[in-house]
Amino acid sequence: MKTAFITGITGQDGSYLAEHLLEQGYKVVGMMRRSATPSTARFAAVEDRVEIGHGDLLDQSSLMRLLDEHKPDEIYNLAAQSFVHSSFHEPIHTSDVTGLGVMRMLEAVRLVCPKVRFYQASSSEMFGEVHETPQRETTPFHPRSPYGVAKVYGHWATVNYRESYDMFACSGILFNHESPRRGKEFVTRKISDHVASIVFGEKDQLALGNLDARRDWGFAGDYIRAMHLMLLADTPEDYVISTGTTESVREFCRIAFERVGLNYEDYVVVDPRFFRPAEVELLLGDAAKAKEKLGWEPEVDFRGLVEMMVDADLQTRLDMYKEPTRGFLPDTLKVS
Ligand code: NAP
Ligand code: G4F
Known about the structure:
This protein has helices spanning 12-23, 60-70, 84-89, 91-112, 146-165, 187-199, 220-232, 249-258, 288-294, 302-321, and strands at residues 3-7, 27-32, 50-54, 74-77, 117-123, 168-174, 177-178, 206-208, 214-215, 218-219, 239-241, 247-248, 268-270. It is an alpha/beta fold. The chain has 2 domains: 3-178 and 217-241, Rossmann fold; 187-215 and 245-283 and 301-321, UDP-galactose 4-epimerase, domain 1.
């Protein structure tokens, strides 16, 4: 039985990846940092089948101890301070975790288990002020936030360790991917959660920043399959993972409100607090290499994603309130 070691197990991607690898017959070890209120909610469905190891990307010795203890075959380095907006408020912390944290993991691998297969969670934020559209593996990086800068550092550190030490190290340059498990600070989940609160009368408004920003949004459940395929390939390489479509925040709002029979223009207000000092205006990925070499394809399209997220947030409210106060509910929801 192969052992997979996942940093960031409590996050969106960590939870989907843990479920996927368990289904594939892996033993899964997840790394969690110490917290006064530890959250295992996202991977609750498989909690009893995941072994937890306590460690932190800021603490080199904890990483080495865990790798020595569990001797993994595959490592997925998903842990990061991953919220772009916060990276402007906490640039040093973000650099330390999201940038240097990758170097700490790579050093731990080099010293403890150099034959392991290593996945680094790189990001389309590295393209930032894009130099070409669509963006592919060869597109130059031009990050627009401390988060993006830190991800570029982690990305090149991974390439450098592959070239220097012949390590099986891959970077997945993943475009935005979402799900009902997405944190509520990210725009998609903020929208789906607010739609549900508005329908059930908890809130009257949704305050957002730049409605014209465009993203290539996919479903997290599709994207974690690509991570696994990268580590099963014959050679370690970097891959763009994206849907090949781009939509605006405004369009996400339009479809999300339409799902419950409401017009987003009646509820959405623009609030300068949610704008960023520098913005990434457009992302659109070309995943041709992953499709050809890994046989990877996304299954959920943009409308399917929006509706899945809105429905999940509606279902949670429906279980509490029974009746909506505005709009209507999709037929597929279940009254308990
Ligand atoms: P997420 O939900 O924000 O999860 C981040 C994870 O990192 C959490 O488990 C968090 O633990 C952990 N973490 C934070 N600081 C840590 C530290 N110092 N030591 C150990 N663990 C720490 O992120 P995600 O959406 O699942 O994304 C997974 C990875 O992919 C991240 O690296 C992200 O930057 C990258 N990425 C995401 C996307 C996307 O659209 N989702 C796209 C491209 C790349 P706590 O629960 O303790 O906070
Ligand atoms: O949902 P977001 O916060 O995601 P962002 O900045 O694109 O970053 C996410 O995707 C990256 C991949 O490209 C990951 F690497 C990263 O870890 C993270 O998962 O914002 C999306 C867009 C931005 O242009 C933002 O300015 O939505 C715009 N936006 C408009 N109003 C807002 C809001 N974003 C947030 N979070 N909140 C708003 O009220």
